[in-house]
């Protein structure tokens, strides 16, 4: 919302100057952004450093320090001491979580054990048969209950299910009836079994027993080989009637007269209880030992993996951080060497490829920059970061069709991104439609006023339209956004050079050169300003540095030849122009300058030849008239060339 004052007051209340910044590293990072956007660079750097101290993995803070040009060496920031500290913090956090987990298990374990003991035969009978296994020695029982303590809480009501239908149970032999429920519960609690003494007349039969009785009758009928023996409905009703009578229920009750039947089922109950208790005890001991051993192994494995992961991560951040730091300091060749050390999976990512493309762009190697930007765009077509620089690369390569296609792609990805409109503006600038290009660059500024490059492109278009007042205005806006944006300093220098304000031009070119001391273009323009100030020796020295910095750049060679002509060192100037012709054989201005030198040396035929070649190369309209005038005056021995721009 761009409410920077309110955001700062929220993080640092005015009435509480000593209050700690909230949210730790994140709070310091946000406060650093506020200071940076409001021009307080030193305070911003301090906040970013504090954020990085609190959280060494906060890459965004280190990135901002690199942009400000004050980041320390990545090898000192992401050190082995940092890895040890992070490992200790992670280990302490992991141990705390493990202790909480163990405490929770200690609370849950008695409940789980009790749930195993409290499982009644009713619950065992009602467990789903398809999810259980038979208990050895008891084919009719299932082993699900033995594993309950590992899977369910003490409440086992979730195992209650509706009574099985006839089709589900027709092929299953019904389990034996557990008559003494109270005896089973007392046995598990350690007391002697006591048979309930309840009068059957006053206690109605339980529904469970009724269902089981009916289930037996239905199963018997289904498996009866003789179809004639199926009783009629009236017979079944009369057979069910005694169940509801006042007679003594010997078949289902606990105090029936059939003592042999009762003792048999009681024995089964006791055997099942003892088996469950013994199995539960042995499983608990075995699982406890296995859990402790597995816990120790997992702890060692996790600690080892954590240490290895932290070291690898910090190693990766060291490489990326050092490459990005060198790139922000415009030490592009060193940055490229650092990026080449990355593993192939890390190097072939959109962000790294964009950084490599930017490095080649600063080195004025547009072909290599195009290669890496294109690869990055193909890998990550929705990534917009760096695409404004890519569009400028295509502009310098005169790739009109590809630039137009890139602009359309970026607009389709996000039409509200400044990078997309910068690409559209470069497309129109390449067609020399500066007014339309300017509208697109202004649209980019409107979408995001913190993009310094969009302000600079607006300044370039105003400069092309010779509206120097507005050009200076946009260049200064770019410097308000980013004081280290050397392109804006360069643009201001060009404006003042055209206005023949040579001292101002020299000042702004020097500021740009201090930010980017490796740029041969900046060295060349600084030398031109020095030459305009009649400081020819300093100008020659700067031109030598520019030629040494980039031997493929023709501009400093041509400017050096001009300075040598001004010093009347004609032969040295011709030698320099001959070397220039090997690099740029189709430069009309070069042949025009050679013609002027031959005229001064009184070699008129070569002078006429060079002027003719310059005219054949179709020079710009501004130079065309000058070259024709110089060619007409070749044979006038006392006439001097009037225009020093040749």
Task: Describe the fold and architecture.
Keywords: Nucleus, Repeat, TPR repeat. Belongs to the APC3/CDC27 family. Residues 112-161, 163-172, 176-210, 217-268 and 638-646 have low confidence and may be disordered. The radius of gyration is 45 Å and the shape is elongated. It has helices at 4-11, 25-37, 41-54, 59-68, 74-77, 80-117, 121-126, 166-169, 181-188, 207-222, 233-240, 259-328, 332-339, 344-347, 350-362, 366-379, 387-396, 400-413, 418-430, 434-447, 452-464, 468-481, 486-498, 502-515, 520-532, 536-549, 554-566, 570-583, 588-600, 604-616, 621-632; strands spanning 134-135, 138-142. Among the domains are: 1-87 and 307-320, Serine Threonine Protein Phosphatase 5, Tetratricopeptide repeat (Alpha Horseshoe), CATH 1.25.40; 586-639, no CATH class. The chain contains 31 helices and 2 strands.
Essential attributes:
nucleus, single chain, Serine Threonine Protein Phosphatase 5, Tetratricopeptide repeat, 646 residues, TPR_2, mainly alpha, TPR repeat, Cell division cycle 27-like protein, repeat, 31 helices
Explain briefly what this protein structure is:
By secondary structure, the protein is mostly helical.
CATH architecture of the domain at 1-87 and 307-320: Alpha Horseshoe
Q: In which order are the strands of the major sheet placed?
A: 1-2
**C-alpha termini separation:** 54 Å
pLDDT averaged over residues: 77
**CATH topology name of the domain at 1-87 and 307-320:** Serine Threonine Protein Phosphatase 5, Tetratricopeptide repeat
Write down the overall geometry.
elongated
Structural category: mainly alpha
The helical percent reads 55-70%
Tally of contiguous helical segments: 31
Contiguous runs where pLDDT drops below 50 for at least 5 residues: 112-161, 163-172, 176-210, 217-268, 638-646
Quaternary form: single chain
CATH class of the domain at 1-87 and 307-320: Mainly Alpha
Q: Describe the sheet with the most strands.
A: 2 strands, antiparallel
């Amino acid at each position: 919302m761009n409410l920077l004052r309110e955001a700062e007051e929220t993080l640092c209340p005015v009435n509480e100057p000593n209050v700690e910044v909230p949210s730790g590293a994140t709070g310091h990072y946000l406060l650093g952004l506020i200071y940076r956007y409001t021009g307080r660079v030193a305070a911003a750097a301090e906040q970013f450093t504090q954020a990085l101290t609190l959280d060494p993995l906060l890459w965004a803070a280190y990135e901002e320090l690199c942009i400000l040009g004050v980041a320390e060496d990545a090898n000192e920031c992401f050190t082995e001491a940092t890895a040890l500290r992070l490992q200790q913090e992670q280990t302490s956090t992991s141990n705390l979580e493990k202790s909480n987990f163990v405490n929770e298990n200690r609370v849950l374990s008695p409940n789980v054990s009790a749930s195993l003991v409290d499982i009644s035969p009713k619950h065992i009978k009602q467990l789903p048969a398809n999810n259980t296994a038979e208990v050895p020695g008891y084919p009719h029982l299932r082993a699900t209950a033995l594993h309950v303590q590992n899977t369910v809480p003490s409440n086992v009501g979730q195992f209650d299910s509706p009574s099985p239908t006839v089709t589900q149970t027709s092929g299953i032999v019904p389990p034996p009836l557990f008559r003494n429920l109270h005896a089973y519960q007392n046995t598990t609690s350690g007391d002697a079994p006591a048979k309930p003494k309840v009068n059957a007349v006053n206690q109605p039969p339980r529904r469970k027993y009724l269902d089981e009785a009916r289930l037996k009758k239905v199963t018997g009928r289904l498996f009866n080989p003789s179809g004639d023996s199926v009783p009629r409905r009236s017979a079944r009703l009369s057979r069910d009637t005694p169940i509801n009578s006042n007679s003594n229920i010997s078949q289902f009750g606990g105090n029936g007269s059939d003592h042999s039947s009762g003792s048999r089922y009681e024995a089964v109950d006791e055997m099942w209880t003892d088996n469950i208790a013994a199995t539960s005890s042995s499983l608990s001991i075995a699982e406890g030992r296995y859990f402790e051993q597995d816990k120790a192994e997992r702890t060692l494995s996790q600690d080892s993996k954590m240490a290895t992961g932290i070291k690898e991560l910090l190693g990766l951040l060291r490489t990326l951080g050092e490459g990005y730091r060198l790139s922000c300091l415009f030490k592009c060749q060193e940055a490229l060497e650092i990026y080449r050390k990355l593993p192939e999976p890390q190097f072939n990512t959109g962000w790294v490829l964009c950084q490599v493309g930017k490095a080649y762009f600063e080195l004025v190697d547009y072909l290599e920059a195009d290669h890496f930007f294109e690869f990055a765009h193909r890998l990550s077509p929705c990534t917009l970061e760096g695409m404004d620089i890519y569009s400028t690369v295509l502009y310098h390569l005169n790739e009109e069709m590809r630039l137009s296609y890139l602009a359309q792609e970026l607009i389709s990805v996000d039409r509200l991104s400044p990078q997309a409109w910068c690409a559209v503006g470069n497309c129109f600038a390449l067609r020399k439609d500066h007014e339309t290009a300017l509208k697109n660059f202004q649209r980019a500024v409107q979408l995001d006023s913190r993009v310094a490059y969009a302000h600079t492109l607006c300044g370039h278009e105003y400069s092309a339209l010779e509206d120097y007042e507005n050009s200076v205005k946009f260049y200064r806006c770019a410097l308000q956004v980013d004081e280290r944006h050397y392109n804006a300093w360069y643009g201001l220098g060009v404006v003042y050079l055209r206005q023949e304000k040579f001292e101002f031009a020299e000042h702004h070119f020097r500021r740009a050169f201090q930010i980017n001391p490796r740029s041969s273009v900046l060295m060349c323009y600084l030398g031109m300003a020095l030459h305009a100030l009649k400081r020819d020796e300093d100008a020659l020295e700067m031109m030598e540095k520019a030629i040494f910095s980039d031997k493929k750049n023709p501009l400093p060679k041509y400017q050096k030849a001009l300075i040598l002509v001004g010093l009347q060192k004609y032969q040295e100037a011709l030698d320099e122009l001959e070397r220039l012709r090997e690099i740029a054989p189709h430069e009309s201005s070069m042949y025009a300058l050679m013609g002027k030198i031959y005229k001064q040396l009184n070699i008129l035929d070569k002078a006429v030849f060079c002027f003719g070649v310059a005219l054949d190369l179709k020079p710009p309209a501004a130079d065309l008239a000058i070259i024709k005038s110089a060619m007409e005056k070749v044979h006038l021995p006392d006439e001097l060339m009037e225009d020093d721009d040749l």
